[in-house]
Design goal:
This protein has helices spanning 3-15, 43-54, 75-80, 95-101, 117-128. Helix 2 packs across helix 5. By secondary structure, it is mostly helical. Helices cover 37% and strands 0% of the residues. The longest helix has 13 residues, at 3-15. The N and C termini lie far apart (32 Å). It has one domain.
């Protein structure tokens, strides 16, 4: 099976799954306050804190109650668990980017507050920079 077909199957499978609740928000109900630099994105400094705030709500991509196989509580689980979710160097082939942009399947995270453009660009930059555990 070629990589594109496998990625397509994974995207289709994930499209039918959603979280039980809406994503948590920052102070005053605003979207996450995590701000990404234009380059030199840090997994521990920006990516994981964003996942913790916007993706790891109970019933979403946490360790215990997630509704699908994708767990975003650590680097190993986010990058190494499901082929195609994060493809280092290839944001446009990474399911994570496609879902947070809303270009494939339901936009993630669900609820009233999608990630802002800085955060989407930051995830893209982290992937372009090799999706390093830094």
């Amino acid at each position: 099976m070629n990589g594109g077909l496998l990625a397509g199957i994974l995207v289709a499978a994930m499209a039918g799954l959603s979280c039980k609740g809406s994503a948590p928000t920052g102070p005053g109900g605003s979207p996450s306050t995590i701000i990404f630099p234009a380059n030199g994105v840090s997994y521990s400094g920006q990516v994981q804190p964003l996942f913790n705030q916007a993706c790891n709500a109970s019933g979403c991509h946490d360790d215990g109650t997630q509704t699908n196989a994708l767990v975003l509580t650590s680097y190993g689980k986010a990058v190494l668990t499901i082929t195609g979710v994060v493809i280092p160097g290839k944001p446009d082939a990474s399911t994570l980017v496609l879902r947070i942009q809303g270009s494939v399947g339901a936009r993630m995270p669900p609820g009233a507050y999608p990630l802002n453009q800085n955060q989407i660009n930051g995830i893209r930059t982290w992937i372009v920079e090799g999706a390093k555990n830094n």
